[in-house]
Amino acid sequence: MILVTVFWGSVDELGEETVTTVALKDVTKVFKDGTLAVDSINLDVNDGEFMVLLGPSGCGKSTVLRMIAGLEDPTQGAVLLDGELANDLPPRDRKIAMVFQDFALYPHMTVGDNIAFPLRLAGVEPTPRGERVTDVASALGIGDVLARKPGQLSGGQRQRVAMGRAIIRRPGLFLMDEPLSNLDCGLRAELRAEISGLTRELGVTTVYVTHDQAEALTMADRVAIMRRGVLQDVGTPTQVYGRPATLYVAAFLGSPRMNLLEASVYVHLDRYVTLNLGEQSLYLPWDDIRSRAVAHYHGERIVVGMRAEALTPVSPDSPGDVLRGRIRYLEHHGHESLAFLDIGATAIVVDEMGARLDNPPEGQRGLRRFSSVMQRLTGKAVEAADDAAGGTRTSVLPDPGRHHRRPAELAVRLAPYPAVAAGHPLAVAVRMDALHFFDERGGRIDVGWR
Ligand SMILES: Nc1ncnc2c1ncn2[C@@H]1O[C@H](COP(=O)(O)OP(=O)(O)OP(=O)(O)O)[C@@H](O)[C@H]1O
After folding, report:
1. Is the Cβ atom of 59 under 6 angstroms away from ligand 1?
2. Cα distance between residue 42 and residue 376, in whole Å
3. How far is the CA of 31 from the centre of ligand 1 (A)?
4. Is the minimum distance from the CB of 54 to ligand 1 under 6 angstroms?
5. N or C: which end of the chain has fewer CB within 10 A?
6. Atom 24 in ligand 1: which residue has the minimum CA distance?
7. Atom of ligand 1 nearest to the CA of 29
8. Is there an atom of ligand 1 within 6 Å of 222 CB?
9. What's the 71 CA to ligand 1 centre distance in angstroms?
10. Half-sphere CA count of 447, side-chain side, radius 13 A
11. CA 133, CA 127: separation in Å to the nearest integer?
12. Closest CA relative to residue 25, chosen from 63, 74, 88, 78
């Protein structure tokens, strides 16, 4: 573990003020060839925060980072650094340090000279420069390779040198673009702990780009999840994992992936809401506050999400919220096994293009019709439901792209050496409070939205 005991504030090595906060206001980037890379993004990164931009390849993460660095101009919107409009500020005046995926070290210079380079450029005298390099290198665990050239280093060492060069001026804002993606798995895990430890210890604001959810969830104070230029969700790892704002985020985060099942909704007023999954149903009790929000979809299809941790194997005759099926196949992962269960349901597979249930167009009319029936029947209850749904549905507009369906294979966690095998029947208790609900556009159906 890297230990740095000096507190680094918002003044850099040369005593210059540094930037510590970033705000993006309706930032859009359209490239010359017409590619819409970033679509009206709003994001605040707070002082000292470790913000991770997460999303698949091509979703626009690097373009966001490059706009913060000043390497790309936004087509529209404002990039604010410490609250000041920075759209026209050249990169060198932004007081930001950046680390890239390919390290970008000078091959002909020694490690020490590489790390010292920003200080040399700024005219710092050799003696203080040398002392500073020694401090930083020993903090990064590369004190013994200062005389080597980058070509004589391992990938992990090269990445540490790149970090050293970036932090030597004690920046207030640190941008990192997939800094670990060229490293092997074990080293990535080691370095991600080091990087997040180091940046926290330094109190430096960090924006970190990755497509690796494990990196995002373990390192971030907050994660911003992007898809095709659109920001889908922003929150702490617990928030985005525990209450994903969109179907896409639900499908993207977690391993095994969240089970996403198509369900038809039927309301039995004052009793429960039936979630018909095909051959089996789950029942959301009416006194569960979420049933009011789900009830809006009476007669329609929604998506019910359940992570493997919401499912516990039970004996086949167990009462309550239980799904029964047959094991299609097992996957052994050493510390656990996963069983994939045929339960006679339909899975929604969210592909890169998007997710949408092709509800009949009259679906919305059905909803309104149902609401008015509810209103007549219950009066107040509908107002509450309306409030809940209106006030809590996410404002994110997921891209209504395509999805596909296939027979569901419900992922269930089992012990490492389970007593069951493919073909065996299995029953699982469902933790109803751990279910997620999404509408036909991929937006979350919820109450008490964060
Ligand atoms: N200079 C450019 N001209 C045209 N299109 C570009 C340019 N740079 C990037 N793009 C496009 O903009 C979109 C977003 O690219 P960006 O590099 O920001 O994605 P990313 O999420 O960082 O992906 P990756 O993880 O693969 O680096 C992609 O469709 C990409 O092809």
Report:
1. yes
2. 41
3. 9
4. no
5. N
6. 57
7. 12
8. no
9. 13
10. 15
11. 10
12. 78
For ligand 1, atom 22: residue with the closest CA: 62
Class of residue 421 by CB neighbours under 10 A (exposed 0-12, middle 13-18, buried 19+): exposed
- Section 266-291 average pLDDT: 93
The alpha-helical segments, DSSP class H, found in 140-184 are: 155-167
Q: Considering the entire predicted model, what is its pTM? A: 0.82
Q: Which atom of ligand 1 sits closest to the CA of residue 65?
A: 18
Where do the structural domains in the chain lie, given as residue ranges? 22-245, 248-438
Interval between CA 36 and ligand 1 midpoint (Å): 9
Q: How far apart are CA 246 and CA 264, in angstroms?
A: 19
Q: Is the pLDDT of residue 195 over 90?
A: no
Tell me the pLDDT band of 359, cut-offs 50, 70 and 90: very low
User: In the prediction, which pLDDT does 16 show?
Assistant: 61
Cα–Cα distance measured from residue 157 to residue 134, given in angstroms and rounded to the nearest whole number = 15
**Residue 447 has what pLDDT?**
75
- Counting from 1 in the atom list of ligand 1, the atom nearest the Cα of 60 is 18
- CATH code for residues 22-245: 3.40.50.300
* Phi-psi sector, 83: left (phi>0), alpha (psi -120 to 50), beta: left
